UniProtKB/TrEMBL annotation:
Localization: Cytoplasm
Record organism: Agrilus planipennis
Keyword Metal-binding part of the UniProt annotation: no
Family: Belongs to the TtcA family. CTU1/NCS6/ATPBD3 subfamily.
Name of the featured protein: Cytoplasmic tRNA 2-thiolation protein 1
Function of the molecule: Plays a central role in 2-thiolation of mcm(5)S(2)U at tRNA wobble positions of tRNA(Lys), tRNA(Glu) and tRNA(Gln). Directly binds tRNAs and probably acts by catalyzing adenylation of tRNAs, an intermediate required for 2-thiolation. It is unclear whether it acts as a sulfurtransferase that transfers sulfur from thiocarboxylated URM1 onto the uridine of tRNAs at wobble position.
Amino acid sequence: MPKCSAKCGNKAILKRPKTGDALCKECFFDAFETEIHYTITKCTLFKPNMTVAIAASGGKDSTVLAYVLKLLNKKYNYGLKLVLLSIDEGITGYRDDSLNTVKQNRDDYEMPLKILSYKDLYGWTMDEIVEKVGRKNNCTFCGVFRRQALDRGAALLKVDCIATGHNADDIAETVLMNVLRGDLARLKRCTAIITGNGSGDGIPRVKPLKYTFEKEIVMYAYFRKLLYFSTECVFAPNAYRGHARMLLKDLEKIDPTIIMNIIYSGESIRVSENTSLPSLTNCTNCGYVSSQQLCKACVLLEGLNRGLPRLGIGKSSRVKQILTEEKYNNLNSNSCVEAKNCLCKNLKDNSVNLK
Ligand SMILES: Nc1ncnc2c1ncn2[C@@H]1O[C@H](COP(=O)(O)OP(=O)(O)OP(=O)(O)O)[C@@H](O)[C@H]1O
């Protein structure tokens, strides 16, 4: 093995995927952590005295994020209060096991942990949802509900922002996906390292691992002997993202810097002025952030509660049609399902006007 290229005199034990440098363990830790510190300070992700909820799934990314944030907070005196926030989607054989890992991290890292479940928030577990909707569209439900569940958890904990474990590969994949779909509106915003301004468009979310390669996260967790959960979700993966992921992995074999190049391209691209993002408002039913009068979570939930699980999947005009038909049926028959967040009260007093 060659000598460590950081000139510390030790033997190198690894080759950094991001730079190709041969490094010893200690110099790799230092480079890895210093780069994340640089991202945090350069992009002003945090301010002193903030309370930060680390979105913790028990997987490698959020586990490494929790470990490194704790370490950097102490080393550089960020002055942050760190808490763990986990969402239990109710997926047997997957989330129950990964939450055990998060509980162990809570003890090891001495951070408070809050777990919120879909069952408590929405009345449904993902296991129950998949029984109704099948394995094709279940990722839509899971993603929409998780996004809102994290906002709800953050509001409950009164934190200033949420930090997620999205890494460089995730961001590059999302850029590729939006290019392949021609989704310019999403392309415009998908590389943002901070989203949400704390007022109209939800609690701020930050991605401290935005420039950190997935392969290095795995290496770091391995050499630091961090405990994380590595099983894939038992339900069907997001097929479209899977294609982008495979393409990226193939490109990375040719040249690992492609990951950074895709992110830089996404950051630098100028999208036409005519491509505007939907303006954000608050859902008239639940009050959480939404681009429509009714948020996607409420529409999906309404579909589940009414036995119309496809409501909200696909075009919004179809949703409007179904809800309008339902409105008249319910007004005539009073047969709506009594559910926690039922929209009938809104439909009856005509306060809901889907775009
Ligand atoms: N159930 C959950 N509870 C809390 N946060 C979550 C949950 N699922 C995902 N997240 C957050 O969203 C980020 C991206 O989620 P994704 O599904 O891509 O996970 P991942 O790439 O497997 O990451 P990880 O290795 O942290 O699980 C995670 O790093 C984590 O911060």
